[in-house]
Amino acid sequence: MSLTAISESTPSPLFDAGAEFDRQVRTLVDLGYPALAGLTVERFTALAAPLRAEAVAVADGPDAPYDVAAGRVPFLLVVARDVVPVEETMPRTTLKGGRLPGFVDRSFEPGALERFVATEETGAGELSVYLLHGVERGEEFCGAVPETAMAALAERGRTTLTIEEGVALITHFPEVLVKNKCFSLGGSRCGDRRVPAIWISKKAPKLGWCWAGNPHTWLGMASAAGRRTAAAEG
After folding, report:
1. Residue 141 in contact with residue 214, Cβ under 8 Å?
2. The dihedral of CA 171, 1, 128, 150: what is its sign?
C-alpha cells in the first residue's frame, strides 16, 4: 500500500515503504525523467534502486507519524539539477487533480535560477539522486519572517529544503500544495535577500521568490530531518 492510500496520520504497519519508493520511481519514469537525464529507463531505475533500503529504514524511524493531508511525508526521492534541470522538472508538476503545468516565475531574471544553489548548511550541493526524509510543509511558519523561520528550524536540528527538493515534494505529493499552505525553500540561496518559494498562481504551481525579511500569511517554511545517499546518511 502506498502512502497516498493512507492520507491519515497512522503509518506502520499499514504503510509499505518499499511500495511507496517504487511508486515514486514510477512517477519520475512516467514524467520522462530518464530521457531528460540522457539515460535509459533501466539505467535511471538502477541509479535509484540502492536508495530503496534507505527508504525502508527511515520509514521505520523517529520521523513517524506522517500525514500527507497535514503536509508531512516520510521520504522523497530527489533528483538534483545536475541530472535534470529545474526548468524541465517544474513544468512536470501540477496541482492535485489539476492539468495546468507548474512554471518558473519571470521574477527570476535571466541566469538567476542557476545562482540559487544549495546552501552549505544543507550539504545537498554534492548530491545528485538521493533521499530526503522526515519532510514537513511547514505551515506553522505561515506569517513568520523567513529569516526567523529558518533560525527556528536550525535550532531544532532540521534542514530547510532546496529548490529541487521542493519540486520533488509537489511532484510526488501534489496534494501537499494547497491554498494558504504553500512554502518557502530556504535551502537554496543566491547570496542576496531572496528566498525561493513554491505557491499557487493561475491554478498551477509556481516557483518564485520572496524577501527574507518579509512575512506572508500563505507561505510557511518547508523542512526535513535529513538526507540520505545509498551509502550513508547525509
Report:
1. no
2. positive
